[in-house]
Write a structure and sequence with these properties.
By secondary structure, this protein is mainly α. It has one domain. Helices cover 60% and strands 0% of the residues. It has 6 helices and no strands. Helix 1 packs antiparallel against helix 3, helix 1 crosses helix 4 and helix 4 runs antiparallel to helix 6. The chain is globular. The relative contact order is 0.18.
């Protein structure tokens, strides 16, 4: 994993306490128990990313989902503020997210899925 990939995931968790405000429902959808859990677990996951420590599958998944949402969403995330608060430009962020999507195995997904009948 590149330094930029780790930094992007780190920022994707960090920025939820900054320009973006997470609802309880969104925190749960991202795999956390609550907004408080997002902040607490986010700190732990960020520390693991920074220290290059092994992480559980669920932690990689939550970090990836948090980064995807906060980067792209103007109603839920940082969107146009992303570049200014992280220092990572949009083009590099988009490419890095795509790279991460190719080599992080995000399976099984968080939550449950019931196919339509």
């Amino acid at each position: 994993m590149t330094a930029l990939e780790r930094r992007l995931l780190w920022e994707g968790l960090m920025q939820w306490g900054g320009p973006a405000r997470c609802s309880e429902e969104l925190a749960v959808a991202m795999g956390f128990e609550s907004v408080a859990d997002l902040y607490e677990e986010g700190r732990r996951i960020r520390a693991s990313l920074r220290a290059h420590e092994p992480m559980k599958h669920v932690d990689w998944t939550r970090a990836m989902i948090a980064a995807e949402i906060i980067f792209i969403s103007s109603s839920l995330g940082a969107a146009s503020d992303w570049d200014g608060v992280t220092g990572i430009n949009d083009a590099d962020t988009f490419k890095t997210i795509r790279d991460l999507q190719q080599h992080l195995v995000i399976w099984p997904p968080i939550g449950t899925y019931s196919p339509p009948k």
